[in-house]
Design goal:
Bound molecules: pyridoxal-5'-phosphate
CATH superfamily of the largest domain: Type I PLP-dependent aspartate aminotransferase-like (Major domain)
Shape: globular
Number of strands: 16
Helix content: 25-40%
CATH topology of the largest domain: Aspartate Aminotransferase, domain 2
CATH architecture of the largest domain: 3-Layer(aba) Sandwich
Radius of gyration: 25 Å
Structural class: alpha/beta
CATH class of the largest domain: Alpha Beta
Distance between the termini: 59 Å
Strand order of the largest sheet: 1-7-6-5-4-2-3
Number of domains: 3
Length: about 450
């Protein structure tokens, strides 16, 4: 069966109620038929559920769907993406081990490594994710795993999974890939040579900004080493969240198609804007990882990053001038979300660490949603226009209006001569609109130039 069909049709066995849609097993524990049944389940001699920290049918349905969609042998669901990362590290690493980690990973993954793994005697090396040539010199006899994201968050760099999995195989290192930005619909790291795939299901897998969740997909042997940690430490996915996530997977393909279509349009539009220095989107021909992205991804994904001229201040202003887009730290939602990593998600990194991870002060991250793309573009345009105008208003508060034009300064010649005289060189002309300044309030009015 094709991806879309498996995402819809794989579900737990129909109960005696003959339900069509999958049921929710909202129960913390299960009953045993008799003392022998109980003994056999605890001794792992029979299959069945004991307690939802260990297994639950709603959770298992989500796990089996994820294993199938990622083309892996098995999956363990977790309460969040970070729980999936931590459960993987805690189960597979021991004191004295060493891990290699791309410099461009989610902020909390660094914190987990530096604040916890280090104190338990596990050492780490950060890798320059933009150049693999130095990596071999960082391998040690005790190196156990290499951890990366592709596309990276928030810089959207692309890492060549085939090449890196060859490197890992030669050095007997497990390759762990956080596939959160691409989802299994766009990229299947296991089929490209990775050993373990990690997900924050909180993102596109839910896709509607409702529940937290995570997943680890790998071969049976690796999953059997992680399962006892899950069972005993308990970062398990709740049955309710698993049920929501299973339903969400049914629409993953159609949602991702539209996310990608909107994001490509947004990225191409941003490339034409004078306010933008650089746009990062894996399926733009200008992206340095374009060929690799096309060889390992079905489409470019829903995330777009761009570098504003004007750094931190420009980034903050743009965010304050948006109207529809949500200002939130999440991503992968139906709603478009705008984030300024330097002043939020990555503000705790030093400026040097941010630069090494490809996060400049003017970088804006967009999680392009499923609204009509014209409305997303209009909101971005509005944020750009206001951003350019506000300083001008301060300078000309004695005047009655500020003229805006999409086309820039030179186009002021097409303005009525009375306005030309009034505004002179001090104004930024960007659009064919007039904003009269009345006692400090802005009233947008269209003007026929
Ligand atoms: C790439 C990536 N991995 C992992 C996580 C952690 O996921 P969660 O928030 O579900 O714990 C995030 C969260 O934003 C993320 O962006």
């Amino acid at each position: 069966m094709k991806f879309e069909t498996r995402a819809i049709r794989l579900q737990s066995k129909r109960t005696l109620q003959n339900e069509h849609s999958t049921p929710l097993y909202l129960t913390s524990s299960f009953v045993f038929d008799d003392s022998e049944h109980m003994r056999a389940l605890f001794a792992s001699e029979a299959e069945g559920n004991i307690y939802s920290r260990f297994t639950n049918p709603s959770v298992r349905e989500f796990e089996l769907k994820m294993a199938s969609l990622e083309e892996g042998e098995d999956c363990i669901a977790t309460s969040s993406g970070m729980a999936a990362i931590f459960a993987t590290f805690a189960s597979l690493l021991a004191q004295g081990d060493h891990i290699m980690m791309s410099r461009a990973v989610f902020g909390s993954t660094f914190r987990l490594t530096e604040d916890y793994l280090a104190k338990w005697g596990i050492t780490y090396s950060y890798l320059d994710h933009r150049s693999t040539s130095e990596w071999q010199s960082q391998v040690k006899p005790e190196t156990k795993l290499l951890y990366l994201e592709t596309p990276t968050n928030p810089g959207l760099d692309i890492m060549d999974l085939r090449q890196i999995s060859d490197f890992c195989r030669k050095n007997s290192i497990l390759l762990v890939v956080d596939n959160c930005f691409a989802t299994p619909y766009l990229q299947k790291p296991l089929s490209l040579g990775a050993d373990i795939v990690i997900h924050s299901a909180t993102k596109y897998l839910d896709g509607q900004g409702r529940v937290m969740g995570g997943a680890i997909i790998a071969g049976h042997e690796i999953i059997s080493r992680i399962f006892p940690f899950m069972k005993n430490a308990g970062p398990s996915l709740s049955p309710f969240n698993a049920w929501v996530l299973s339903k969400s997977l049914e629409t993953l393909a159609v949602r991702m198609d539209r996310h990608c279509e909107n994001a490509l349009k947004v990225a191409s539009w941003l490339e034409s804007r004078p306010e933008v220095k650089e746009v990062r989107y894996p399926f733009l021909a200008s992206h340095d990882g374009y060929d690799t992205a096309r060889s390992q991804m079905k489409a470019g994904g829903g995330m777009v990053s761009f570098e504003l001229r004007g750094g931190m201040e420009a980034g903050k202003k743009m965010i304050d001038n948006r109207s529809m887009m949500s200002l939130s730290a999440n991503l992968g939602d139906t709603r478009t979300i705008i984030t300024h990593p330097a002043s939020s998600t990555h503000s705790k990194l030093s400026a040097g660490d941010r630069a090494a991870a490809g996060i400049s002060d003017g970088l804006i991250r967009l999680s392009v949603g499923l609204e009509h793309v014209d409305d997303i573009l209009a909101d971005l345009e509005g944020a750009f226009l206001n951003h350019t105008v506000r300083p001008a208003i301060a300078q000309v508060s004695c005047l009655e209006a500020v003229v805006l034009g999409k086309t820039a300064f030179s186009e002021k010649n097409c303005l009525p001569s009375s306005l030309k005289r009034a505004f002179s060189e001090r104004l930024t002309l960007i659009h064919e609109e007039i904003l009269p300044v009345l006692n400090g309030t802005l009233l947008p009015v269209r003007v026929d130039t």
